[in-house]
């Protein structure tokens, strides 16, 4: 399913198109490399090597762009996630993939909202229900373990805000940053390994 217009961003679309282009180039390159190796055609082998170098340079350039534009990417991601939270509807099948993805993120990182549970106060459905429900994927209660998506009933609403919810206090933005910092060595190792194999 394609994301609705408000969930998309120019940077994410551009990234997707770049990945599609690199994938198509990789398939063509692999075919030319095999053809050149089998028939011992030097021209095709040279083209294969050139394509490999282009892909390696593109990967390094993409890494540098991500590193130096991380502020812009963070802002774009914040805008997309805030729109997703605001329009989150468990009954809308058109947004099921986005909804499931966000529920998965909140469960795995044990976080709630982008900057915190207060982000969910902008959700239209929860606002109409006077905040008497909360996102199940945010829950820090074991009784909600079976319901890992949608909204769960708040047993004892006090003042109708996210502060009443039994949810994780950490926002997912902080959780994702922490995960990236904790796994930076593994990520860099994998990237370096792929680059060495390509060379």
From TrEMBL:
Keywords: Membrane, Transmembrane, Transmembrane helix. It is found in: Membrane. Coiled coil: none annotated. It holds the Pfam family Tetraspanin. One of its GO terms (cellular component) is plasma membrane. InterPro entries: Tetraspanin/Peripherin, Tetraspanin_animals, Tetraspanin_CS, Tetraspanin_EC2_sf. It is a multi-pass membrane protein. PROSITE patterns: TM4_1. Signal peptide: none annotated. The chain crosses the membrane at residues 16-38, 45-68. PANTHER family: CD82 ANTIGEN, TETRASPANIN. Belongs to the tetraspanin (TM4SF) family. This is Tetraspanin. It comes from Ramphastos sulfuratus. The gene is Cd82.
